[in-house]
Amino acid sequence: MIPVAFDYQRATTVDEAIAALSGDSKILAGGHSLLPAMKLRLSQPAKLVDITRIAALKGIKEENGEIVIGAGTTHGDIAKDDLIKTKLPFFADGASMIGDVQVRNHGTIGGSLAHADPAADWTALVLAADAAIEVQSSSGKRIIKATDFFTGLFSTALEDGEIITAIRIAVPAAGTKTSYQKFVQPASRFAIVGCAVMRAPDGKTNIAFTGVSDNPFRDAGAEAAVSGKTLDNATISAATNAAAAGVSIMSDHYASEPYRRHLAKVYLKKALQAVS
Ligand SMILES: Cc1cc2nc3c(=O)[nH]c(=O)nc-3n(C[C@H](O)[C@H](O)[C@H](O)COP(=O)(O)OP(=O)(O)OC[C@H]3O[C@@H](n4cnc5c(N)ncnc54)[C@H](O)[C@@H]3O)c2cc1C
Predict the structure, then answer these.
(1) Where is the FAD-binding PCMH-type domain positioned along the sequence (predicted)?
(2) Among 6, 62, 70, 225, which is 20 to 30 Å from 171 by CA?
């Protein structure tokens, strides 16, 4: 289908993009979620503000004890980055599992987080990494903890006029282990179930799921079952028994509610075995 007519403005700075945003406008990043929605007329913005040429939104650096990923950095660039491969290897693995080469070359981490697809990969990864989402508007900058960012199906804590500028993650302590495991939808590669785990040397373990519910989530029950404990078979089994307890599980033509619940346990087990 063909989208409804819209205006287009290319911004070259974040301030210019913010100034260009008005009531009925949308940011255009990689376009791999927005353009399909516009073609289906599920989204009908009056204006697109293109942020793809804003250099300040691209790149990955270590700064004051944090790894800072520009919101406009593509999945492909994150997958290839040496700092990410060394310090946040599950980000590199997760990024390399997104879609196909075209999607990875254009799709951005900021666009994926703003879109908040319930089957997206970045959502679980930023939750497990305890990331902070940096956003900017005409009122200035603010930081939103990843755990406060996702508010429901395709919904986030972003307010009108706000642009995600960066994703900030405290540099993990030496010896931290990470894993991202997903059961892929075979055509799109979206996560039917994805499980991200970050385990610190002291045993503190963050566990997050995507694809399971209409909102990505940290699994407090599974985390309590393994945090600070040796990851032997009994502990892993206790965690998988606790996985997604009390969570409302999605059901669709790819996977029923009981099958998804089963997959959550299987993929948590794989991720915990990978960090043990
Ligand atoms: C065939 C196909 C397969 C895919 N497979 C996967 C997969 O396996 N896993 C996965 O996770 N995803 C997958 N995706 C989605 C892909 O990762 C998208 O790139 C991503 O969801 C959106 O990022 P984008 O940069 O393309 O954003 P866009 O499509 O440009 O924008 C998406 C939304 O975010 C808003 N937005 C964009 N950037 C910002 C910003 N900086 N601040 C605030 N709002 C912003 C836009 O206004 C829009 O509402 C797939 C997509 C396709 C088409």
Answers:
(1) 1-174
(2) 225
